[in-house]
Amino acid sequence: MTQPTMIRGEHLPTALTLAPRGLPVLPLRAGKVPFGNCPACADNRCGGRPNMKTPGPCTCPAPCHGWAGATTDPAVIGSAAWARAWREAAAVAYHPGGAGLTVVDLDNADAITWAGANLPATRTVSTTRGEHWIYRGTMPSANAVRPGLDIKSLMSYARWLGAGAGIVAPLPDTVRALLVREAAPASPAAVTVPRPAARGRRCPHRSPAYLERGIAMAEQRITDATSAVHATVFATFLAVLSTHGRCGCLTEAHTARLFAAAGTKGETARHCADAWTNAVRRLGM
């Protein structure tokens, strides 16, 4: 099978071409491992998993951590902060879920044969060992759902190996059914809702509508995120806690709504709990 080859330094123009098409992109090091996108995250100092494919508890303000740092913003892609990464990059990757896509990664001939017999035809991209079958729609990502078959969609990334051939078909139920075990839903039960430090402190909420409007705006901010989802969720939690978290009006029902919104963008219960806890600590609550 053939695929595009590039020399180092050619990946930034490719990324800047893909971003306007709605594909959130990021640079990859050799071995298909992302760069840390800010100094605090270099060499995995932020606490992510060793291969940096999964976000750690870092609360840096810059887009960071693999799939969560993928972006369509040309100002970020071409920024000085990313310049070294693009100079050293071995490949361009993109976040399929952020583009509303699911990639069925077929690693060998047997997996391709199975897909040909069980999945509808769709856009196909050749890889080193097999093929990527690309569908329109998102779902949780998972590895080894069948021999030689991985699913890359929400909270994952795939290498850009060219546009491929064929028309992108809707994501079929056959692919969704491959997930035997779904991710646990995000729940506020694992986090603490701050309570006022001293009784008698004046509540800033002039009416219940003030708090309701703030929570609704926070839900919308998370829902509208198309890149840097992990960073957006943390920033939103931080803003909610800063404005509404010191007087005792914030309840578990409110945090449940925020966690649910984050869950629709692919955030797991662990990521939500980490982001909430880090926001509470950042504010000294």
SSE order and pairing:
Blueprint: H1 11-18, E1 25-29, E2 33-34, H2 74-77, H3 80-88, E3 91-94, E4 101-106, H4 109-118, E5 123-126, E6 131-136, E7 142-146, E8 149-152, E9 158-159, E10 169-170, H5 173-176, H6 208-224, H7 229-244, H8 252-264, H9 269-282
Helix pairs in contact: 6-7, 6-8, 7-9
Q: How is the main sheet built?
A: 6 strands, mixed
Individual helix count: 9
Helix amount: 25-40%
Alpha-beta classification:
alpha+beta
Number of strands: 10
How much of the sequence lies in strands comes to: 5-15%
Coarse morphology: globular
Helix and strand sequence: HEEHHEEHEEEEEEHHHHH
Return residue spans where pLDDT drops below 50 for at least 5 consecutive residues: 1-8, 48-52
Quote the distance from N terminus to C terminus: 56 Å
What would the average pLDDT be, to the nearest integer?
Answer: 80
Rounded to an integer, what's the Rg over CA atoms?
A: 20 Å
How would you sum up this structure, described in words?
With 285 residues, the protein is α+β, with helices and mostly antiparallel strands. 33% of the residues lie in helices and 14% in strands. It is built from 9 helices and 10 strands. The chain has helices at residues 11-18, 74-77, 80-88, 109-118, 173-176, 208-224, 229-244, 252-264, 269-282; strands at residues 25-29, 33-34, 91-94, 101-106, 123-126, 131-136, 142-146, 149-152, 158-159, 169-170. The strands form 2 sheets. Strands 4, 5, 6, 7, 8 and 10 form a 6-stranded mixed β-sheet that branches. A 4-stranded antiparallel β-sheet has the order 2-1-3-9, with helices on one face. Helix 6 (208-224) packs antiparallel against helix 7 (229-244) and helix 7 (229-244) crosses helix 9 (269-282). The longest helix is centred in the last third of the chain and has 17 residues, at 208-224. 38% of the residues are buried.
